[in-house]
Amino acid sequence: MSMHRMSAPWRGGLTAALLALTLPAVAGVYKWTDAEGQVHYTQSPPPSGVQGEELKAPPKVDSESAVEDLEAKQKGFDERLEDKAKTEAEAAKTADQAAEKARYCEQLRADLAGLQTAQRIFTGEGADRRRLGEDERQAKMKDIEAKLAKDCS
Questions:
Q1: β-pair type (39-42, 122-123)
Q2: What do you get for the CA distance between the two ends of the chain, in Å?
Q3: How far apart are the C-alpha atoms of 112 and 147, rounded to whole Å?
Q4: Which residues of the chain have pLDDT under 70?
């Protein structure tokens, strides 16, 4: 017998042994429950007589693509967060402006009511204090009414 003939079966046996060793590495994951109700996840099939299922492996992930996707999602999230902050700031500014306008209009209404009901209206302070004449009172009331019509309607 030649050496060549003897080596061929040996190579086949070695290939089968190597294949048997690598199969568990590429085999699926099994889920099964033992007699005590304990759930097991293994890379080998459940013992004989035990019902189990082979779970599908998750798909391979392309790391570079996954990182790019995550970065794009993060950028979108950051943009939405920034837009929300701007919207909230604008809403707060609008609310502050509305409150200031309400205070201004309320003061105008109070000033008009004072001019309409008071018999004697004084203006100025200290040595400059003087009584408002009727023409001046009427002019101030018209001015306030115009401001109310323009700014507070």
A1: unpaired
A2: 115
A3: 11
A4: 1-27
> What is the model's pLDDT at position 120?
80
Quick one: pLDDT at residue 27? 58
Q: Which residue, among 116, 120, 97, has the nearest Cα to 108 in the 3D structure?
A: 116
Q: How far apart are CA 77 and CA 66, in angstroms?
A: 16
pTM score: 0.48
CA–CA separation, 72 vs 48, rounded Å?
49
Asked if residues 122 and 83 have their Cβ atoms less than 8 Å apart, the reply is no
Are the CB atoms for 89 and 61 separated by under 8 Å? no
User: Hey, where are the domains in the chain?
Assistant: 63-151
pLDDT tens digits for range 45-82: 898 888 889 988 777 778 888 899 999 999 999 999 99
Residues near 50 by Cβ (< 8 Å), separated by ≥ 6? 32, 33, 34
* Distance separating alpha carbons of residues 124 and 135, to the nearest angstrom: 17
